[in-house]
Amino acid sequence: MPTETEALDIYKSSIHFDGLNIANFSRDIFEAWHAGGITGVSCTCGLWEGLRGSLANVVQWKEWFEEHSDLIVQAHTVADIRRAKESGRTAVLLSWQNTAGIEDQLSYLRVFRDLGVRKMQLTYNTQNYSGAGYTELRDSGLTGFGRQVVDEMAKLGIVCDLSHVGPQTSEDVINYAPEGKPPCFSHVLPGGLKEHPRNKDDRLIKLIASKGGFIGLSQFGPHMAKGNDSTIDDYVDALDYVIGLAGEDLVGIGSDASEGHGRPSDFMAWCNKDKGYARQLTPWGSQKVVKPLGPLADRAQLAVAMARKGWSEEKMRKVLGENWLKYLERILGE
């Protein structure tokens, strides 16, 4: 097994893909990714916004790709992510945490796919045209329109994420999704270690894995077994727990890093209200949240923690990023 020192060398040569970042994006964050050796990141560029706001977010990212081309590059395919590793930059996979941006128009999916939004969460916390989020008062499952959205996303090569989606809607999507195009939980924690509505229970984790779907683990302290006392070693324990349910090839990192955002802040308050302005959904916009992976610039410490747990080099490389890339290759295509 690698020593902790050897783990740092393994990390440097590995692909590290983070399945969800909602940081306060700026050059400071892009430099932190570079310092942390993060190869690729799925970045939230849509949450409550409709068509116009979602387009504005993509425009902002296009400007960043041009202004900070020494640090970041847009990823449309897995090949783009591997090329970013070779060039010493971080590949950004533009992602939504809601399908609010398509409003009620299926055809808008193609427009955003062509702009490079290649991963979309079906719902964010509450009900939309497609289904229910996990805070909704009644989860009535995947809607008829939602079935069409799932079909179109699969056809267009857009990843379907179910992290904030309610349990019944999640189960419906997992069972309905076209063969070979399974959904993912990009940033979740296991309910088997801590029961919480936002966490996914063992049955759902096993179900999504049985279809070839992917599970990325969040580092959201309050939803971990020890709450805000959780450490990076506890995070690796959570990875091992989910690997025990889903296997070693379908598990990776989805940190849900929010570096640069204060708590409280206007942004967090907006995230935590239905549609961005109505009822408060969770208390986390203003309460302390420990994220045990630490600063983005220190992400190599994750490999050190894996070594402390006796992980093999192969297992480390897979969970750090290779597993994500194999899954993404199936969905994104060439």
Automatic annotation (TrEMBL):
Checking Gene3D superfamilies in the record gives: Metal-dependent hydrolases
Record's signal peptide: none
By its UniProt entry, which InterPro entries does this protein fall under? Metal_Hydrolase, Pept_M19
GO BP annotations of the record are: proteolysis
Alphabetized, the UniProt keywords read: Dipeptidase, Hydrolase, Metal-binding, Metalloprotease, Protease, Zinc
Q: For this protein, what reaction is catalysed?
A: an L-aminoacyl-L-amino acid + H2O = 2 an L-alpha-amino acid
Cofactor(s) the protein needs: Zn(2+)
Q: Which SUPFAM superfamilies match?
A: Metallo-dependent hydrolases
The record's EC number reads: 3.4.13.19
Keyword field contains Zinc: yes
One example GO MF annotation = metallodipeptidase activity
**UniProt cross-references to PANTHER family, sorted A to Z:** DIPEPTIDASE, MICROSOMAL DIPEPTIDASE
What family is this? Belongs to the metallo-dependent hydrolases superfamily. Peptidase M19 family.
Report what the protein is called. Answer: Dipeptidase
- Which species does the entry assign this protein to? Clonostachys byssicola
Give the classification, highest ranks.
Eukaryota, Fungi, Dikarya, Ascomycota, Pezizomycotina
